[in-house]
Amino acid sequence: MSVDIIRILAVFFVVLSHTTDRFVLYTPLKGSISWNIIYYFNTLSHVAVPLFIMLSGYLLLRKEKLKNIKLFYKRRFSRILLPFIFWVIIYSGNDINWDRARVTIHYIQQRLWNGDVWHLYFLIIILELYLVTPILMRLIEKLSKKKKAILFWSLLAFSIFCSLLNIYNIDFKRNSLTMFIPYIGIFYAGAYLRTVKIQKKLIPILLAIYFFLPVITNRIGNGVLGAFIVLNYSPTLLPMTLSLFLVLKNIHQFFRKRLLSGYIPKVIAFIAPTAFGIYLVHALVLDRVFSYFHLYPWQIHTPLVFYAPLPAILTFLISFLIIVAIRKIPYGKYVVG
After folding, report:
1. Average pLDDT, integer, range 30-48
2. Containing H/E element for 333?
3. CA torsion angle for 184, 114, 230, 305 (degrees, to 10)?
4. Residue 127 sits in which domain range?
5. All residues at 6 or more sequence positions from 316 whose CB lies less than 8 Å from its CB, including other chains
6. What is the pLDDT of residue 101?
7. Is the pLDDT of residue 31 over 70?
8. pLDDT range class, residue 100, cuts 50, 70, 90
9. What total number of domains does the chain contain?
10. pLDDT per residue over 207-237, tens digit each?
11. H or E element in which residue 266 lies
12. Do 77 and 129 form a contact (C-beta atoms < 8 A)?
């Protein structure tokens, strides 16, 4: 159940992040109380992609998963590659709808090479991590417990180092072949933390880290969404992700009765399989939610902080319904997971 909770929360954070981006970038709002509150929640939600990647490491870096490497690659790539191709075509078509002259074969090739494929860049990262999974697994098997800990901290330090390189205009995200490199440590962290159990008294401390670090992040970032400090592997975002992952991974141990009571398990089990599909489709839905319901920042005259979450909630619910419908269509699961 913890895995499903992480999936659902991570995909909602993706939607919330992309929703609040538009309010954070709305210049007339900058510096106001509403802007600072929205910016805070925007940063809280930036743990979405690293949560997904940690969860992948948690689930896949296991010896039993890699007994047959050929089968591993077949299953993993068939689940990701086909949706990636399908949705690149869909989003390219969406761009054509907005700007026919701009979208050419060369334009698409450049976006693929640069890893600038909308929010689908995550799929490139995960595919590349799948490629190195058997290599990483063989390395882990040979290591002692102490050396695994050293590898864990070393890879995390390297991820943070990669974020600092952005200060000097060195960015691994600029190329599809290198964009996965800073995430190797996050991927391995999911596996390393799998056996780490925390005491209930540590939960407030971990949550305090998660909720406090956005204050420092925003102080440094100052509304610049491309700043090094808001990268998924920055000195603040990485500890936030690790803290939240530890809490969510162990949540069933401390709140088993509440989580297993009533309709909660059924609701979680029903929503979780649609998480990947929601991730894929939400950007299309979000544009139309903003437009149809007139929820762009400049269209709202009351305190924006009360309206900022609304597009995210509507987008999440509509995307969920769309994915449920697509999954009922023959072969629909092949393109939405």
Report:
1. 95
2. helix 333-336
3. -130
4. 2-336
5. 11, 12, 15, 278, 282
6. 54
7. yes
8. low
9. 1
10. 999 999 999 999 999 999 889 999 999 999 9
11. helix 264-271
12. no
190 in Cβ contact with 54 (< 8 Å): yes
Cα dihedral sign, 333-110-48-191: positive
What's residue 259's pLDDT?
64
Burial class (CB in 10 A: 0-12, 13-18, 19+), 183: buried
| Residue 232 tokens, joined | 């998924």
Distance (Å, whole) CA 38 – CA 232: 19
Rounded CA-CA distance 115/171 in Å is 12
- Phi/psi at 101 (nearest 5 deg)? -70, -25
> Cα–Cα distance between 97 and 128 in angstroms, integer?
31
Tokens of 196: 């780490």
Confidence of residue 178 (pLDDT cuts 50, 70, 90): very high
Radius of gyration of the chain (CA): 20
Q: Are 118 and 90 in contact (CB under 8 A)?
A: no
* 175 DSSP 8-state letter: S
How many residues in the chain? 337
Residues 7 and 280: their CA atoms lie apart, in Å, by 14
Residue pair 157/228 in contact (Cβ under 8 Å)? The answer is: no
pLDDT more than 70, % of the chain: 96
Q: Which residue has the tokens 């039993």?
A: 64
**Cβ neighbours for 156, distance < 8 A, ≥ 6 positions apart:** 185, 186, 189, 238, 242
Cβ-proximal residues to 35 (8 Å cutoff; 6+ apart), any chain: 23, 24, 26, 29, 223, 304
Q: Which residues, in sequence order, are CB contacts of 5 under 8 Å at separation 6+?
A: 248, 251, 268
